[in-house]
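Here is the promised in-class demo. Please do not try to memorize the tokens; focus on the logic of going from shape to residues.
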């Protein structure tokens, strides 16, 4: 029996290693690393003779460095666009030149250089010569044509910009319990639509890669078997999450952030609050009794959660937002600068529930976290 078990284990390891090879060839570095992790769970001394893990890590590091470079360029370019809108044309032009110094091929999608040069030239001309005043009707026609052209150019620019690949921040790999997450202070707006609406939407968020653990019936200390990626940030009024779960691990029915407070725990939690996405819609609930939640609006509260989900080829995506302090008596009351969560102000739990792939049954997976709200 031992020999048969060993043979089956070796067959499984060989299959996983072949899959890791295929993922490496397809440039799916993260998935290749996940396969090596699965192998190491079966045999912690497995020799990665082809160096798949090392190659994948190097490529991930290269991509992360490139992402950091693109984040820096995106922030500089955003400054150039802001200066242009503030009619600081020379400063906008100087900032654009800084971008060009780093990347000669960086696209000027908002036409900073052309617009700034034209406006500077026009400004110099009109200071020297007063333009001839046109009759009212021709002036109106020219104004309408000019505005129509600008609107059309704006739509074209927005279309080109929003169809660029997303710029996502570098991820940290965390395994401690509870997990410490830092919510970065954000200057980029978020459109809660379940995806990265424009390239830099989540560029200034903090990213964490972690495994969610099976719920044991008492806490989140079971087998850590569901990979997930969590982007988090705040703007001093709201907390924002973008969550990614690979389809190979679970078929989620929902994802949630739940808060049980105040600390310390005495017999039972006095209050509880959650923002989640389940049954195809956002949920704002409170009053966990060990089996069910209650909807905030059922007892004089308000619906404050914004959430949406989408699917890609390999992942489920969830996007959330909720006020730090909505004023709703059922909701948590936080402020920028607070550190909240497990063993500090209460228990803070992230989790997902759904079905395991290939008919593996239903499951709930979770982790306890501490959350630092940057200000």
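The designed amino acids, position by position:
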């Amino acid at each position: 029996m031992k020999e048969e078990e060993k043979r089956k284990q070796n067959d499984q390891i060989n299959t996983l290693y072949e899959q890791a090879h295929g993922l490496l060839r397809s440039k799916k570095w993260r998935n290749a690393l996940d396969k090596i992790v699965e192998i190491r769970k079966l045999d912690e001394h497995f020799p990665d003779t082809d160096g798949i893990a090392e190659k994948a890590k190097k490529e991930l590091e290269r991509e992360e460095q490139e992402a950091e470079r693109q984040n820096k360029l995106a922030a500089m370019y955003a400054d150039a666009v802001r200066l242009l809108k503030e009619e600081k044309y020379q400063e906008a032009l100087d900032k654009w030149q800084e971008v060009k110094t780093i990347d000669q091929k960086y696209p000027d999608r908002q036409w900073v250089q052309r617009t700034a040069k034209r406006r500077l030239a026009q400004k110099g001309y009109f200071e020297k010569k007063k333009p001839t005043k046109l009759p009212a009707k021709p002036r109106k026609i020219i104004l309408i044509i000019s505005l129509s052209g600008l609107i059309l150019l704006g739509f074209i620019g927005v279309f080109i910009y929003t169809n660029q690949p997303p710029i996502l921040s570098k991820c940290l790999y965390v395994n401690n319990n509870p997990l410490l997450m830092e919510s970065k202070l954000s200057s980029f707006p978020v459109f809660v639509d379940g995806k990265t609406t424009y390239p830099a939407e989540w560029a200034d968020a903090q990213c964490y890669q972690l495994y969610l653990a099976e719920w044991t019936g008492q806490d989140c200390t079971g087998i850590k078997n569901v990979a997930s990626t969590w982007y988090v940030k705040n703007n001093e009024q709201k907390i924002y999450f973008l969550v990614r779960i690979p389809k190979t691990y679970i078929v989620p029915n929902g994802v949630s952030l739940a808060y049980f407070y105040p600390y310390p725990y005495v017999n039972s939690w006095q209050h509880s609050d959650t923002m989640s996405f389940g049954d195809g819609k956002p949920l704002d609930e409170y009053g966990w009794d060990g089996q069910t939640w209650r909807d905030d609006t059922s007892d004089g509260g308000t619906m404050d959660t914004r959430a949406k989900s989408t699917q890609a080829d390999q992942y489920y995506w969830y996007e959330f937002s909720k006020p730090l302090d909505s004023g709703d008596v059922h909701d948590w009351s936080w402020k920028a600068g607070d550190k909240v969560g497990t063993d500090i102000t209460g228990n803070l739990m992230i989790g997902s529930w759904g079905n395991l792939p290939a008919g593996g049954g239903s499951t709930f997976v979770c982790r306890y976290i501490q959350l630092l709200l940057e200000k």
